[in-house]
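## Example record

The block below lists the input lines for one assembly entry, exactly as stored, with component labels intact.
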Amino acid sequence: MEKVGSGYADYFALIFFILCGVVLVSSFKSLLILFLGIEIISIPLYILTGSDKKNLRSNEASLKYFLLGSFSTGILLMGIALMYGSLGTFSTTGVNFLPEGTKPSVLLVAGMLMLFFAMSFKVSAVPFHFWTPDVYDGAPTVFTSFMATIVKAAVFIAFIRLFDESFGAMQSQWQLMVAVIITATLLVGNITAVFQQSVKRMLAYSSISQAGFMLFAVFAMNTDAKEGLILYAAAYSLATIGIFAVLNKLSDYSFDGFNGLAKEQPLLAGTAVVFLLSLAGIPLTAGFLSKFYMLKAALATGKFMWLVIFAVLMAAVSVFYYFRVIQAMYFKEPQKPIQVSASASFKTGLVIVALLIIILGINPGLLIRWLYF
Amino acid sequence: MIPVLLIFIPLLAGVLTFFFRSEKAVRSWSLGISFVTMAVAVIGVTIFDEGSPLLTVNTPWLQTLGSSFFVRLDGLGKILTLLTAISFPVIFTSTWSTPYKRSNNFYALMLLGQAGLMGVFVAADALLFYFFWELALIPMYFIASIWGGEKRIRVTFKFFIYTFIGSVLMLIGILYLQSKTANHSFSIQAFNNLQLSLKEQSWLFWLFFIAFAIKMPIFPLHTWQPDTYEQSPTAATMVLSGVMVKMGLLGIIRWVMPVMPAAFHSWGDVAMSLSVIGIVYASLIAMRQDDLKRLIAFSSIAHIGLMNMALFSENISGVQGAILQMFNHGINIIGLWAIVEIIERKTGTRKMSELGGLAQKAPAMAVFFVVIALANIALPLTNSFPGEFLMFNSLLTAHTTRLYALLFTVFAGLGIILGAVYTLNMIRKTFYGETNTVTAGVTDLSLNEKIALSAVVILVIVIGVYPQLLLDITNNFSEMIANKDMFRKA
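Predicted structure tokens for the full assembly:
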């Protein structure tokens, strides 16, 4: 983080603000709290994205994120207002009071749609994903990893809570829409990631496709889905933090920048393999079991078999770009010697993260038994 | 207990091997471990009967998902673990003098691969089976990509993507089957008790069959195979072709035949047709090859195709013959690769057009090669003969229309004849004729190579003369698979 610039203390303050927002969005019972939480998360993030003040791309990313983000917040607010208009309450359990057999009013459906779009924007689902690659690429790597993991996981938990508690009774109305969004997200995320030249941008697109997988939890909305989402969020965050940490140590973010890393820094490369295998969903890593939970939850709904088959084919596509990094690290020779310095404590941290991924991959019960919602 | 040992001895030893420094120590240690594993496998196979409590382990694991750590050595598992356990010492001995950069990583990955293979062969829980299926693949992918030939990165990646697509399709099938079982379990018994409609079975059949067909490989999913065998270091090729392709056949026998019998029956003709096309096609291509490795790779496609056909002929001699032949093919092809590796190390080439007259310079190598090559074309008194005899017997009485059975037999027989043509041609071009500048300086086998190849030849002849040795092990298992009126259960 020191690399980013002056105002070192400010960053910590902003990060703590975000954590406060994270707590709010993952425990709200009222739509207003949800709105507050999302704003508390977003505003510090706009600043963090632009914290590399001398870097033009960082500035551009920040501005883009701010404009698009505030637009989506506006939609969120509008949705909440419509909901209030039709129900007369901000409580999240309001819609469930809808009597059996009655059709939800137009206002309510419109409100739900707006909430859905706003949340989709925050988790960067296609077609609301356009900010993601630029922001992830432009922001300093430390903040990218923070944004891609903790913030995203929190928003997902908010997403699933909102749709479970508030709109659970209307599932038939929105399930198809979620399925379409999942398809688009997986397709665009994976296919675009294949064509990236920079690992950082590739990770940005891959985070879009991972969001597609996490949306399966919203789609299926059963016990497996909720347990799976916890596991998925943990597995994805651990692996992403790890891989961004390794990336941060390199000077060249392109695929070629990884060439021959295994020879220079066998430990860094070894742990990076664990992170990538987990992201790709290879067994014995947490990433596999979390994808497994998602597929199982989706199959249990008994509908949309094609969606599941499509998802696993896309998982196979994702192997393609994750393995390009592994190929570069292990099978290719560096064009110029890479100078990477990593302290012992940094290495220990990486090993711990990698071990956690493997432990969760063998015994996910450890996590699922502790955390549930 | 025994199956757990078979998995965890190589697994833990493999992890430790990463930390070795001295090259000599790494080799001796890996060889020692492979002998220990072999001893355990031999004890497990010979002393205990099926159903002995020492051959089954079932402990809870991932209970929330309905999976458990359930491993078991049945007849099929016994034969294949035995094959795996015998292969690795032979591989390590015969490639003893091949140099590898960073040999500790190489041997570590080999041992991890062995652990994965053992796991696949003994797993009686579908999720566990899937875990090991991937665990076996990844070390082999790394070995082939790090120590392979020039085009290794692209070729092995193709191999990896192929198998990965197959395995995720299989994963969907496994999940679907699990959701249908009464107590949401992944165990093999629960799968066997399922009663599914023909439509469901057909879907599932293809999800599984594609995964296994890629692994075997069956035409038209075979395109990864010759390139991968050619580009991998020979030790990895031996594992891939000798042991790993059997994962596909095992998958058919254990996870397809009893679980979706109706679809197995109704799609049998399609699967057999694909196999028979593969046999003839691969044999024809093998005749035109100049590279020894590619030739053996294509001949392997033909042999595996025949085993697959025998399974789909749906009778006991087919199952028995195929299981016997799985073992024999593994032994023979490892012997062939070993000699190809020796030739390449001594002459620097694998091209038949550049070789010739090796028999004059290396008579012992010639004798070994001829015996193993003849075994590969199933001459009587070699191990493949009883296996192929059983399989052809099954093809003629196959569970399909009379005409098809006849046609399949004739074309498969054509494959055997072509096999004899290219194998004898290969012997002639490499070992006989005049020596040339490339082969003039060749020396004969060293002691370790002689030991490894003798082991192969002894197995070839012992099983050729007395195949009952192995058939007795699998008898109960094959009967169980073939009977129970499974093939027509709707």
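The interface with chain B takes residues 227, 277, 282-284, 292-293, 295-296, 299-300, 308-309, 312-313, 315-316, 319-320, 323, 327, 330-332, 363-365, 368 of chain A (CB under 8 Å). Chain A has two domains: 1-166, 171-373.
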